[in-house]
Every structure is written in structure tokens, then in C-alpha cells.
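ESCALATION

Customer reports they have been waiting on this structure for their group meeting. Please prioritize. Original submission:
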Amino acid sequence: MIKPVSDLARRIGHPFADESLFELALTHRSCGKKNNERLEFLGDSILNFVIADDLFARFPQAKEGELSRLRARMVKGVTLSEVARELGLGDYLRLGSGELKSGGFRRDSILADAVEAIIGAIYLDSDMETARGFILSWFQARLEKLDLNETLKDSKTRLQEFLQSRRLALPTYELINVEGEAHDQTFYIDCTVAGLAKPAKGIGSSRRQAEQEAAKHALIELQVEK
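Update from on-call: job pushed to the front of the queue and completed.
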């Protein structure tokens, strides 16, 4: 049973003046033409600006490319879906019958889009500073954990260099499964690494993202990344 959006508004801490705007933010396109895609577009732009602004102040010595990589790490779909789960958005999503049956309320891409849409809805219902406050509160712990040196190279590159430094075989990535429609797919990857008893697994909305996640998990298993 889908819970009333007023419950979520109270949990988030923003009593919407226009609650229909919040409900729209939680409505997936599988429900029809009236959905959250436009709010998602708006929220994505606001999120990128707020995170970029914070990073600009937080890392005054960072170069443009370094800031871009840090921002990409913060606003990627996997991070947004984690935020969505922390907020408990899955219980409040409005999905079409097909998405309901396929477990769309658990899908990273749908959850990530809903977070962006909610940001857009909060902005329209209030102002930029209010939206900024919510974004920074949701991302604060992640922003504080960022290490400029660790984000200069992606996980696949770090894993490859780690193995090469020990003269071990390079990792192999195998596509295990692909779920979903062409426009909204989930990829499952196994990464086989010398020194690990079983493959490290990665899931993502693209093959590249899934491979990066698998490499990251391999680094954790090898105790290279905590």
C-alpha cells in the first residue's frame, strides 16, 4: 500500500504549501503523462549547482577536472539512490502497474530520479536557499568524507594499478545479467581478481557503472579501500 505523501513531508521536514507538487515529484512516468520528469530536470540542475558551490569552497586548491570528478561522485545515480533509501522514498513512489510488478520502487534509477524531482519540488514550493539546505543536509556526511587524492582515479584504474604493482593478472569483467527495458536497464557484473576467492559484484544503470562498482568492491575486499 502506497503511503500518503504528507507522512513523507513530515519526515523530510518540509510541509509543502502545495502538496500536489510533492505528489507529482513522486510520480514515475509509468503512471502516464503527468509525471516527475520535468521536476527531475529542474532538481538535477539545482543539485549540480549546490554541490559544485560547496565543493568550490571546500577544496580551494582543486583544479577544474578534480572538482568535476568530485561532483560526479556526489551526484551519480548510485549515491542518489542511497539518499532515497535513507529517506524511505520507495514506500511513497507512484508507479504504473508494470513497474509495481517488477519492483520499480527498489530500482536505483527510479529512486535517484525521485530525489532530483523532490529537490525541484522543494525549490518551486519555497526558494533556492531552502532547497540548498535540504541538499546539504542529505549530502553533508558524504561531502565531509571526500578525499581529493582518492578521487583522482576511478575504481577500475586504481584496481588495475594495484594488481600491476604486484605483478598480478589484470581483472576480468563479465556481464552476468541485464534487467529492464532498453531505456531503463540494470546491469550486473562479476569482476574476477587474483587473490579473491570469488568474483566481486557490481550493479549499475550502465555497464560502465556496474564495472566501476565491481572494481570498488574488489578494492574493498583486497583491503585497498576502506
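Sent to customer with the following note: The chain has a mean pLDDT of 90.
Escalation resolved.
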